[in-house]
Amino acid sequence: MSGPAAREAAPGPGRILVVDDTEMNRDLLARRLRALGHEVALAENGARALELLAGGGFDLVLLDIMMPEMDGFAVLERLRADRELSRIPVVMISAVDEIASVARCIELGAADYLPKPFNPVVLRARVAATLEKKRLEDRERLRALSFERELEIGRRIQRDFLPETLPRPDGWEIASMFQPARQVGGDFYDAFPTAEDAIALVVADVCDKGVGAALYMALFRTLLRSHAELHGAAAMAAPAARSVVALTNDYIARTHGRSNMFATVFFGLLDPATGELAWVNGGHEPPVLRRANGTLERLAPTGPAIGMLPDAAFEARGVRLESGDLLLAFTDGVTEERDASGAFFGEERLAALVREPFESAAALLARLEADVRRFRGETDPSDDVTVLAVLRAPKV
């Protein structure tokens, strides 16, 4: 680490700006501070102080309250309004009879005060304490920035696990929506052709949130994709779908069972030629199957969440998507999104939206995304929101 950030976090003497309109006070403070090993700069008024501070590099300001033209209050308010300068602690210089003014400065964000006449013991103690507190805050800030950078790297890597493009078989539209609640999360979706002649469809939600869920998200996604590419034949779709989910479940449960990590998963193998979909629902939110006439069906769980127990039983079922039918698979971040009052978005609201006419799968997801955002308002997202829509084109 190098540069100003490293110097701010390092132990040892600091660089201090003394602001006082009385030359004698400036000189006295400068001599005593330099004797303590600090680097000192001087400003005779508030305007000069702001000019010096704009150049950066100060660890502490000793600021007189009573000065002509721009007093200490005005300088302090300007510092606190600046994002960078607000991090510099300010110790107010005051006479003994100015305690009410000191209190106002503390309310404005001053770190401490130094009474006149200057006592060398008090000066040393308050400067040392304020600098140490700043250094601790600087270290915490640098640690937080480093963590944010790591999370941003993780977010980009996790984004790369999601499909860059979605399959476009003739007569079909596949669209997706993904809104992570944090930099990284446990939701994921996938859609890809298998080594045979099927399209694999995945929507999953790893338990928990944050970095741990993101790491397991990558593992679940990789296992499901690799098994599907090996076993996902449309001709044997039901046994293949069950095998993909079972193999993934057994590996997680046997190899990583001590971590108690699991995922709810909807996995399907679609034959684009016939519209037949073989699917397994491992403890996941039941996807919505919207028929062309507007009626809704749900694809209920056919087994537990995957990764909990080895040799868990999963049932594969089949359904046929006809022209104009839409499959909507989603995570619980959709229905469990909350508004400012704490109310849930809910399944009824989702069902009502899906029943409305739509021009395309992408248009439906755009409408759903806007509705979720509008419902949430200014509140922070409570969970990741992930949706995969599969539409068989209506007959013209």
Report a brief summary of the structure.
The protein is of the alpha/beta class.
Describe it:
The chain folds into two domains: 4-150, Response regulator (Rossmann fold, 3-Layer(aba) Sandwich), CATH 3.40.50; 162-392, 4-Layer Sandwich (Phosphatase 2c, domain 1). The protein contains eleven helices and 15 strands. It has helices at 4-9, 23-35, 46-54, 72-81, 99-108, 120-161, 210-231, 237-255, 332-335, 347-355, 361-376; strands at residues 15-19, 39-43, 60-64, 90-95, 112-116, 172-179, 187-193, 199-206, 263-270, 276-282, 288-290, 296-298, 317-320, 326-330, 385-392. The strands form three sheets. A five-stranded parallel beta sheet has the order 2-1-3-4-5, sandwiched between helices. Strands 6-15-14-11-12 form a five-stranded antiparallel beta sheet. Strands 7-8-9-10-13 form a five-stranded antiparallel beta sheet, covered by helices on one side. Helix 3 (46-54) packs parallel to helix 4, helix 6 runs parallel beside helix 7 and helix 7 (210-231) packs antiparallel against helix 8. The model is unreliable at 1-11 (pLDDT under 50).
Looking at CATH, the homologous superfamily of the largest domain is PPM-type phosphatase domain
Class by alpha and beta content: alpha/beta
Radius of gyration (CA) equals 31 Å
Distance between the termini: 64 Å
What is the succession of H and E elements? Answer: HEHEHEHEHEHEEEHHEEEEEEHHHE
Shape: elongated
Total number of beta strands: 15
How many domains? The number is 2
Beta content comes to: 15-25%
